[in-house]
Amino acid sequence: MEGLFSKSVLRILWTFVYTRLSYLPNYLPALSFWKLCVYAEPKLEKMEFLFEKLGGEKFFQLVAHNNRFHHDISRLTEEKLAILDEILETLQLELSAVCQRKVKY
Q1: Contact 98/16 with Cβ under 8 angstroms?
Q2: For residue range 30-78, what is the model confidence (pLDDT) as tens digits?
Q3: Contacts of 31 (CB under 8 A, 6+ apart)
Q4: What is the pLDDT of residues 67-100, one digit of tens each?
Q5: Helix 78-104 crosses helix 2-21 at what angle (to 10 degrees)?
Q6: Contact 16, 90 (CB under 8 A)
Q7: If we measure between CA atoms, which residue out of 19, 36, 53, 54 comes closest to residue 45?
């Protein structure tokens, strides 16, 4: 579960950066991707409280770590799963809005 979440977050951030900045990064750490997203869309900073609930900057280290292949069994609590779901939903909504604006131009 963590690996799928991590890949989803990174893909959304990557797409967001490309859509907003027309920048196609080869590889960046998850935290750098996030900072580029906030640079491109400052209102995203409002959702950092969700990352803080999962450890702040440590969240991005976990995303990077979980992006690697491993056989670990998921040990996420229901509360953490709800927060992860909220993060993905919020990012997806923001990405959809950006893509719609991009198409209009």
Answers
A1: yes
A2: 899 899 999 999 999 999 999 999 888 888 888 887 766 544 445 667 8
A3: 57, 60, 61
A4: 665 444 456 678 887 888 899 999 999 889 888 8
A5: 20
A6: no
A7: 36
Domain residue ranges of the chain, discontinuous segments joined by + = 2-104
Going by the DSSP 8-state scheme, the letter that residue 26 receives in this structure is S
Q: Is 77 helix (H, G, I), strand (E, B) or coil?
A: coil
**pTM for this prediction:** 0.68
Nearest to 10 by CA among 45, 43, 42, 37: 37
Euclidean distance between CA atoms 46 and 20, whole angstroms: 18
